[in-house]
Design a protein that fits this description.
The protein is of the alpha+beta class. It has 2 helices and 10 strands; from the N terminus they run βββββαβαββββ.
Length: 159
C-alpha cells in the first residue's frame, strides 16, 4: 500500500508499504526510520519554527513541533527510539535570491531547523538531498530503507 503524505502532514507505515509526498519545494520531507523494525514515518514540514507564528493549530506544519509528533508516532507504531535514523530531502530555494524577505531563505532555514532538532534528539541523519532550486517528489520504502528522490528534470536519486 502507498501511504500519501500531504503538505503540512505526517504519516507512518511499515513493512512492504511505501510512503510518498509530492512537490517538496522549500518544504522538507523528514523520514524517521527504525531499520530493524522496518517502521518509518514521514513529515512534510513547511516552516522551521512554530514559535514565530501565533495561534497555529497544526504542529506538523513546522519542523520543530512536527519532528516531535513524528517521533511519537513512529515509536507508537513499534520503532525503537535507540535505533532511529533520519533521512531528509527538500529545502530548496524556490524564490528569487534577490528578495530580501525571510521567505527567500525558507528552504535553507527548514534544513537548518531539521539538523538542529535531530541533533538535540540524538537522531543521526544518515542521508540527505537538500537545497538547490528544484522541487522533489519523494518515496520511502521501509522494507529496504531506500528514499527515492524524483528531482524535476533529473534522474531518480536514491539515498
Amino acid at each position: 500500500m502507498e501511504v500519501k503524505v500531504g503538505m503540512a502532514d505526517m504519516k507512518v507505515c511499515s513493512g512492504s508499504d511505501s510512503i510518498i509526498t509530492l512537490g517538496l519545494g522549500s518544504c522538507v520531507g523528514v523520514i524517521l526510520y527504525d531499520p530493524t523494525a522496518k517502521v518509518c514515518g514521514m513529515l512534510h514540514a513547511m516552516l522551521p519554527d512554530s514559535t514565530a507564528v501565533r495561534n497555529h493549530t497544526n504542529p506538523v506544519k513546522f519542523v520543530d513541533t512536527g519532528i516531535d509528533e513524528l517521533y511519537k508516532a513512529v515509536v507508537a507504531k513499534g520503532a525503537n527510539p535507540r535505533r532511529l535514523i533520519a533521512k531528509v530531502a527538500g529545502g530548496a530555494e524556490m524564490f528569487s535570491n534577490t528578495a530580501r524577505s525571510s521567505i527567500s531563505k525558507v528552504g535553507s532555514r527548514n534544513v537548518e531547523a531539521v539538523h538542529a532538532k535531530l541533533k538535540t534528539m540524538g537522531i543521526p541523519i544518515k542521508a540527505e538531498d537538500t537545497g538547490s532550486n528544484y522541487g522533489r517528489t519523494v518515496i520511502f520504502y521501509p522494507a529496504n530503507g531506500e528514499y527515492h528522490i524524483k528531482r524535476i528534470g533529473k534522474e531518480v536519486f536514491i539515498i
